[in-house]
Amino acid sequence: MAVERSTRSRGDPRGEAATPTSVLLVDDHPVVLSGFRHVVEDLSESLGIERIHEAGDIVSGYRIFHKLRPGMVVADLSFQDRDLSGLSLIRRMRALQPDVRVLAFSMHDDPVVVSRALESGALGYVLKDAPTATIVEAFTTVRAGRGFLEHRLATKVAMLNMRGHGPPLGTLNARELQILSLLSKGKSYRVIADNLSVSYRTVIGACSSMRQKLGVQTLAELIHVAVSRNKLDMGV
User: Fold this and answer.
1) Which CATH architecture has domain 169-234?
2) 4-aspartylphosphate modification sites (predicted)?
């Protein structure tokens, strides 16, 4: 699904990274997409935003970006495949247009996910349940070419980066991070497979890969890493 909405009658949306006057919103939840569009429309006159483009999936989002080259993108990270496929979208957009300003708009407050979004090329990161004022601040800050990260998330990311002696969680891919999170909640292989819509063998293979990456030998040790990480994220 792709929609283009014009807030002004003039302006070419191409090549505007220096002062973005066109914005692309990518999210597979229509309510969320509509809500953020209204936020941008309210800011359009004061910020000089002329066009708002919308996409409800990764493919159409990249196609619109490739064709129109908007100066700013607001992108979700998780789509209907339940994976963090938005990370690959951000990387592809930055590879095509390095100066595009990307704001990750996500429900994930996991510091590893936040770090991966920033490493992929997002200039800012804001949670979907953040107050409207915070979302507006995130949008205007990133549009101006500055980084944005709420203090609480910034603290989590900083703590994660300071743990140089800990397990290298940054080496895990998006699927493995999801499985690790579910393991920390006591979910079985079968339940994890059902929740993520993958095969039982996929979960087993991912756990084997994680044990190798994290330097642990048994499932019990892997679960211990998962639970310890979960406690750290919650500040326990």
Assistant:
1) Orthogonal Bundle (1.10)
2) 76
What one-character DSSP code corresponds to residue 28? Answer: S
CATH T-level fold of 2-159: Rossmann fold (3.40.50)
Beta strand spans in 138-222 (E): 148-149
For the chain, give every domain's residue range. Answer: 2-159, 169-234
Query: What is the identity of the amino acid at 205?
Result: G
The pTM of this model reads: 0.66
The tens place of each residue's pLDDT in the chain, 236 residues long, gives: 455 554 443 334 343 445 678 999 999 888 888 999 999 999 888 888 999 999 998 899 999 999 999 999 999 988 765 567 888 899 999 999 999 999 999 988 888 888 888 888 999 999 999 999 999 999 999 999 899 998 888 877 777 665 544 456 667 887 888 888 888 778 888 889 888 888 999 999 999 998 888 888 888 778 877 776 655 554 43
Buried b (16+ CB within 10 A) or exposed e, 153-182: beebbeebeeeeeebebeebbbbbbbbbbb
Distance CA 227, CA 229 (A): 5
